Amino acid sequence: MTATNLKACIDIGGTKVAVSLARGDGLELLARRSEPTVRTGPPEALAVQVMRMVDQACAEIGVSPASIEQAGVASCGPFVRVAGMVEIAAPNICGGIAGPARGLPNDWRSVPLEALLRQRFVRVCVANDCVAALQAERRWGALQGVDHCAYVTWSTGIGVGLCVDGHVLQGKNGNAGHAGHMFVSDNDDALCGCGNIGDVESLVAGNAIARRFGVDAATLLGRAQAGDTVAAARVGDLCRVLGRALYNLVVTLDLQRISLGGGVFWNHRHNLLPQLRSHVTGRCGALTTGCELVAAGLGERVGDYAALAVLDAG
Ligand SMILES: [Zn+2]
């Protein structure tokens, strides 16, 4: 196999990093691998991890790492720019933002990414993971042909990508869509990695569920599904907070459809989707009638295709 038309697709989340190689203009993703996101060592550790995983993917299919010239990165945000290059200042990776109470094993305030990848690859495109997922869903998934839409991930954190009038919103630092950090409560048991107390992410994200209720999200959702009334009430409360956030997006931006994915949502989407819909449908009907909440068309692969969409869009 010649490697000249292979591209690295890199998906960086608060819990996992996934890397795969895309061939040419096709949708076939090769040598996919996934690891827990590095959160210890120097701030450069994350970029080092990503480049090692690309090397390992190349070794798996027998191509020279030097022949990979393009890298598309879909990463959780927010981003900050240092000398024009994207660094990741993500609350679920950088422990220095909220301080020791958040419990992350580092004091990073941001991690360099784009500058280090540019030393290795000829072309690097970095985008917010949910903006990239939105582009992937618009191109190949559940948002095809929809000009007023959002992609929302319910995962380690809460992320959003937004499109209005056919334009994908970016913002001054590529951070448009960080609706997970909207304030919704004075609840003081909810410290977000961004430092806020009582924002959406601090209340309902996967990391928040574990810290607030002492069980991980999968366990809580599994108990709710099995009929545990305490767990079901907690899940109902989570859906009320996130459902209201979705409603707020719909009425603010006049959206037609929201596609949802993410590790917390995906395995329990049949239970969660109707509950989320109940907080949108029928409220302020002139603004919400006809707006649909749907599961991501690209399913669990949305992150991989998001990284590919970054290169196509860039
Ligand atoms: Zn926050």
- The total tally of domains equals 2
Give start-end ranges of low-pLDDT stretches. none
**Structure annotation, total helices:** 11
Strand content: 15-25%
Shape: globular
| Ligand names | zinc ion
Q: Which class best fits the helix and strand makeup?
A: alpha/beta
Distance between the termini: 26 Å
Instruction: Please give the radius of gyration in angstroms.
Output: 19 Å
CATH class of the largest domain: Alpha Beta
Q: Tally the beta strands.
A: 13
What is the H-and-E element order?
A: EEEHEEEEHEHEEEHHHHEHHHEH
For this entry, give a set of tags:
314 residues, alpha/beta, Nucleotidyltransferase, domain 5, 2 domains, 11 helices, 35% helix, binds zinc ion
Descriptive account of the structure:
This protein has helices spanning 45-61, 114-118, 129-140, 200-204, 206-213, 217-225, 229-253, 263-266, 269-278, 285-288, 302-313, and strands spanning 6-12, 16-23, 29-36, 70-75, 79-82, 85-88, 111-112, 123-128, 149-154, 158-164, 167-168, 257-261, 292-295. With 314 residues, it is α/β, with parallel strands linked by helices. The chain folds into two domains: 6-128, ATPase, nucleotide binding domain (Nucleotidyltransferase, domain 5, 2-Layer Sandwich), CATH 3.30.420; 142-297, ATPase, nucleotide binding domain (Nucleotidyltransferase, domain 5), CATH 3.30.420. Strands 3-2-1-4-8 form a five-stranded mixed sheet. Helix 3 (129-140) packs across helix 11 (302-313), helix 6 (217-225) crosses helix 7 (229-253) and helix 7 packs across helix 9. The protein is globular, with a radius of gyration of 19 Å. The model has no long low-confidence stretch (mean pLDDT 93). The chain binds zinc ion (ZN). Residues 91, 181, 192, 194, 196, 199, 201-202 line the site of zinc ion (ZN). Residues 91, 181, 192, 194, 196, 199, 201-202 line the site of zinc ion.
